[in-house]
Amino acid sequence: MIDNELHVSDLRWDRLLAGELAGDAKAAVLAHADTCVACGSRLALLTRESEAFAMRPGLAPARSRRWWWAVAPALLAAAAVVVLVVPRGPKDEAGERAKGTGPSLIVMAGPAERLALVASGDRVHFGDSVQAGYTATRDGFGAVLGRDGSGRAMAHVPSRGDVMVALPAGTSRSFPESTVLDATPGAEQLVVLWCEAAHPLHPLLAALAANRPITPPAGCTAHHVNLVKQATPR
Amino acid sequence: MAAAGLDVDALYRTYGHSVLRRARQILASEEDASDVLQEIFAGLVARPSQFDGRSSPTTFLYAVTTHACLARLRDRRNRLRLIDEQVRPWASDIDPRTADGRAQVRGVLAQLTDDEARAAVYYHLDGMSHAEIAEVMDCSPRHIRNLLSRIAGRLGEHKEAS
To answer: What is the ipTM of this complex?
Structure first.
């Protein structure tokens, strides 16, 4: 069990990142992050999210519906967590995918018999399974890429080869393979891709390995989930 | 940061990531989380007096985000969808900060009272201590302990029913 009294909460990390902590309070949480793997990973993840979000466009003059359109690219970018990923195509020039026309992508993770929907910031354990899913109104191609705590980038789906797998149109369908997480602790970045055409993976894997933002090929939609992987509790 | 001079754009840049992340954790939906982000900052633009500066912006936005997300969860259609998707057999010694544990906490939020749900979010999803929760909810740590005890009871009932 996690003991909240022994670790630094997200509230305190958020205060730190916002510049609300100073002096002893700031020194104490930073010192804790240096000695606690879980908290150190958490701080690193929240810092990356914060930095990515801060680079997005800010608010436009408000009090009208235009506010939403001005902020929409920022919202989409923030949802992608680390990098700007905007589906390309005639309908996306403003950076927003039209509802109902593009694929939706999810990631499930956990013990194999109890997979649950996960979002960035969730914790997973060594040996947990990861399964991507999608809903798409047309046939496409896809891949699940990852970067683990050691900086190693890999393709989870397909597990072999350099070309995306075929994804038949359908509702709540699974990618054809799942992954069992290894024992490398720390940040576990996952990128789920759906594309209109099959693309080679090596340019995307090279970007991931170099910790650079991924720019998906035209006609692709990407879903990013950044998890924290740790040892299985006894 | 007085209401009259509230710089919502600066707030958005500094705190938007936190609002979005927490909404995503509570709702487990990117689309809903983005809607909550929009709703909160659009609300601040329209009614800057919501933030009176008595608490830190982080504390204020934690409370506002939690309230907005729980309101969504209480929407019947949304609640039924989440329960259907995420309620699973309750296991003993579950770590609520794991993906599986978080999903189970999300699954019961809509069945808790407002105070219980807020405490559950702060404790199980944000990893906050009793004292921190008491500060955000403006009540005593003892009350928080009582709430968390009741939540544990509710979760136990949920386990029995599963």
So the answer is: 0.75
